[in-house]
């Protein structure tokens, strides 16, 4: 069992659940978690667009969680494990680094949203990639 990958899987799963919470609890949660006023307004108007986008994100995060748990040895081995974990780690890192660019021009979100979410994404990316490095030989 690999602690970094278990942490990465747990945090990705938590993020997926929080996204599902936004769907269930609606506009107040979209606002609180920084999705922007446009998404919150669409959710309060009953538009399906926020739900579809958020379901897509939650599904992706859930799958990423499963890949981290698989590499950690918590669940069975998933296909293309190394390749997927490299991609997942890199996507988290790119999102984390890229998000800091938007602090000065937040595009409908707060600067705080970009700082916090970028920090979280950087942490998740590092957990995935460092955990994968530790498990690399076991995943051949």
Automatic annotation (TrEMBL):
Keywords: Membrane, Transmembrane, Transmembrane helix
Segments crossing the lipid bilayer: 49-68, 80-101, 113-132
Name of the protein this chain belongs to: Uncharacterized protein
Native species: Shewanella salipaludis
